[in-house]
Structure formats: C-alpha cells, structure tokens
Amino acid sequence: MSRVRIAEDEQRLKRLNQVEGWLSRAETLINDADQLIFQSSQHVDNLCMGGCCSTHPRSSIKFGKQIAKKLQEVKDQKENGDFSDVASKPPPPSSTERPSEPTVGLEFYLNKSLDEKAEDIFKVLCKKKFALLLDDIWEWFDLTRAGIRIPTQENGSKVIFTTRRVDVCCQMQPNMDNNIGVECLPPGEAFKLFEKKVGSETLRMHPDICKLAEAVVEECAGLPLALITIGRAMASKKTLREWEYV
C-alpha cells in the first residue's frame, strides 16, 4: 500500500487492476483473521493440563483446522503479491471539455443532417412509450420526418401540441373531438392575474395607476401570457408618468 500511495499521490499514476484485486483479497483475509483472533480467547479458556487437552476437543479441533486453512490462504496470498510495478500511467481522456465563446457562422459544420437526427430520435422512441409536448406550433409539423412514431392506441404513446391557429389544429389533428379549446380569461380574472404579477403595492402608488392598469389589462384581451409578461415588466414602474407612457 505504501508503494501504491506514492505512485498515486506523488507520481499521479493509476494502480493496476491486479494490484487492486490483490489488496481487496488481502483485506478480506485480514478481517477473517481478526475474527479468528477474537474467537481464540474462548478456545484458550477450554484448554487444560498445561494446554495439552481441551474440555471441548471437537470444537477445538474444528477451530484448529480453520486456523490452518487461513494460514495457508495467507501464505498463498503473500506468494502472489510480488509486483514489480504497482501502478501505470492512466490512458488519456477521450475528450476534454473547456469553456468557450459561442460560435458564429459555424453551425453548418457542427450540426447533423435532418435525416441523421430523425434516425437518432426514432431509435430512442421506437423502444418505449412516450409523451411528446409541442408548444406553440404555427404551421403543420411532420412528425414522421422528424423520426417520431405516430401515436396509436396499441403503442400507448401520446403527442400533445398547442397552437393559436385553428387551421393548424385541424391539419395536425383532423378528429376535432380530441381538440381542447382554451378560452381567454374573463375581465375580472384577467385583472386578478395582472395584479398578482405587478403587485398590489405598485397599483396603490397613485390613484390613476389603477385606472391605467385596467386599460392595460383590456389591451391584453384576456391572454394569460401577455398579462404575466407585462405585469412583471410593470412591477418596477412606480410613477404615473411611466404608466402613461406604457
């Protein structure tokens, strides 16, 4: 172990597999020997006539055989532990990751082709059930060209998509029974959402700010994303002039 520690700590080498295996077996033998030493006191107490006889001869003979067997294993282990080298230089890593600036104009050289990527996707998805979420689609999307297996009741997979366009919805899913329409928020709920994001403290900074907030909410037409985005942007606007500008 002293040779291994010097090789690893000072020379930055890696211990050999056969050395690691030998050390592991040696540790097991040491633990077994400790157990025998712990049990030996009981057998010594059973000795009599100056240690020539035992009050429990059968147990003592069995214990003696265990010791003899373990001593032979230790002898064999020591004979196999003569290593000229205990460590070697580790192989270099296949790649080294380092921080770098984002590339500009080199995407063509780095990207795989669409067919190659579709093949990779198909190899993964064809072996398992999956749920694929496609958010905010603005035109018809060819699932098969992207390597996505068409979901069926038999394969148990699902594709869920969102879109703001009815024509895209019909093109992607002709069965209108599977489509779920999401309505805009009514005025009262829309203002509650806006107030939650902008903060009630901001709305109380000036009496006219609350009126302007109602006008902003009306312009958002009940769209949650618009209410959330503008509400967060206006959370830091504390003056009437800033609200009038918006």
How would you describe this protein?
The model has no long low-confidence stretch (mean pLDDT 84). α2 (17-45) packs antiparallel against α3, α7 (187-198) packs across α9 (207-220) and α7 (187-198) runs parallel beside α10. This protein is 53% helix and 7% strand. The longest helix has 29 residues, at 17-45. It is mainly α and 246 residues long.
User: What is the string of SSEs from the N terminus onward?
Assistant: HEHEEHEHHEEHHHHHH
Can you tell me the overall shape?
elongated
Total E-strand runs:
6
Average pLDDT, all residues:
84
| Total discrete domains | 3
Overview in brief:
This protein is mainly α and about 250 residues long.
Based on the model shown, name its key terms.
single chain, 246 residues, mainly alpha, 3 domains, two-stranded antiparallel sheet, two-stranded antiparallel ribbon, 11 helices, elongated, NB-ARC
Task: Explain the layout of strands and helices.
Elements lengths: L1 H8 L4 E2 L1 H29 L1 E2 L4 E2 L2 H23 L7 E2 L18 H4 L3 H12 L5 E4 L23 E4 L4 H7 L14 H12 L1 H4 L3 H14 L3 H11 L5 H6 L1
Parallel strand pairs: 5-6
Antiparallel strand pairs: 1-4, 2-3
Helix pairs in contact: 2-3, 7-9, 7-10
